[in-house]
Amino acid sequence: MTIKTSKKTAVDVNAIRRLIKKHKKNDLMFAALGMFVIASLTITLIILFLDLVLDGYPKFTLDFFTNFPSRRAARAGILSAWVGSSLVLLVTFFVAVPLGIAAGIYLEEYAKKNWISDIIEINVSNLAGVPSIIYGLLALGLFVYSFGLGQSILTAGLTLALLMLPIVIVSTREAIRAIPIHIREAAYAVGATKWQVVLHHVVQYSYGGILTGVIIGMARAIGETAPVITIGALTFIAFLPPSPVSIDPPFLNFAWLNAGFTVLPIQMFNWISRPQHAFHINAAATGAVIIILTAMMNGFAIKLRYNVRKKIKW
C-alpha cells in the first residue's frame, strides 16, 4: 500500500512539474511576443518621426516661429498658431484642472457609495474614451449656438476642457486610491478632521499622480484637431489676439477670450492640403514641433511621478 501511494505521489509531482514548465514556457512566449510588438511599434514611430524631422528640418529657424502664415511658403511661419495654441491651453488648464481635481476628490472621499455614484463613475470612465469629434459637436451646439460665445478662444478652451475633464477626474481618483489607509487612520487618530485629512495628507501624497494625469491630458489637448475645426477655428490668420496682460490697472485684459484663433494642428492641416511641396515642408516642421511638445510633456510627467515616488516613504 505504501509503494502504491509513493508511486502515485511521484506521478502527481511529475505532472505538476510538467504543468509548471509548460506555463513558464507560455509566459516566456507571451513576453517575447509583447516585446516584439512594442519594439515594432516603437521603431515604426521613430522612423516616421525622423522622416518628419528630416522633411521639415530646413524650416527649423527663428523666422518660422516668429512669422505669420503667408501665401508664400518661404515666408510662412507658425506665430499665430503657437500663440493661439498657448492661449487655448491656458483656458483649458484653468477650467479643467480645478474642476477635475475637485470632482475626483469629492467622488473618492465624500460621495456616498450608492447607485448614483456608481452611475457617475461609469459615465466618467466612458467619457474618457469618447471620440473627440463628439465633444466638438457638443461644443458647437452648446457654447457657440446656445450660449452665444462664438468661434473664439474661450469656446475652444472650454471644448478641450470637456475633453480633458474625464482624464483628470479618473487620474485623480486613481492617485487617491493608491494612498494606504493607515495614513488616513493615523491622521484621524491625532484628531484631524475629514477636510484636514484630505487636504494635508491624501492630496499631499497623491499630487504626483494627479499632476501626471493633468500633464497627460494637456498633452492630448495640444494635438486635438477635430473639436476645434468643428467649432469653426480659422485656417488662415495673420494677426495675434489681444495680449492677456496690459500696462494699465488691473493689468489683465480679457478681450483675447473673444478673439479669433488658430492652433498648430489646424495650421498643419491647412498646409498639407495645398499642392505645393514647399507647404508640405512647412507642415512637416509643424508636425515635428507638435510631437516634440507632446513628448516633452509626457516625459516631464514621467519624471515628476518618479521624483515624487522616490521622495515619499510610506
UniProtKB/TrEMBL annotation:
Gene3D superfamilies attached to this UniProt entry: MetI-like
Database matches in Pfam families: BPD_transp_1
Subcellular location: Cell inner membrane; Cell membrane
Lineage: Bacteria, Pseudomonadati, Pseudomonadota, Betaproteobacteria, Nitrosomonadales
Assigned keywords, A-Z: Cell membrane, Membrane, Transmembrane, Transmembrane helix, Transport
Annotated transmembrane regions: 28-54, 74-107, 127-147, 153-176, 197-219, 225-242, 254-273, 279-302
Regions annotated as coiled coil: none
Membrane topology: Multi-pass membrane protein
Keyword Nuclease among record annotations: no
Protein's organism: Methylophilales bacterium HTCC2181
GO annotations of cellular component type: plasma membrane
PANTHER family for this protein: PHOSPHATE TRANSPORT SYSTEM PERMEASE PROTEIN PSTA, PHOSPHATE TRANSPORT SYSTEM PERMEASE PROTEIN PSTA-RELATED
Keyword ATP-binding set for record: no
Domain spans labelled ABC transmembrane type-1: 82-302
Family: Belongs to the binding-protein-dependent transport system permease family. CysTW subfamily.
InterPro entries xrefs: MetI-like, MetI-like_sf, Phosphate_PstA
UniProt GO BP: phosphate ion transmembrane transport
GO molecular function, one term: phosphate transmembrane transporter activity
Protein name: Phosphate transport system permease protein PstA
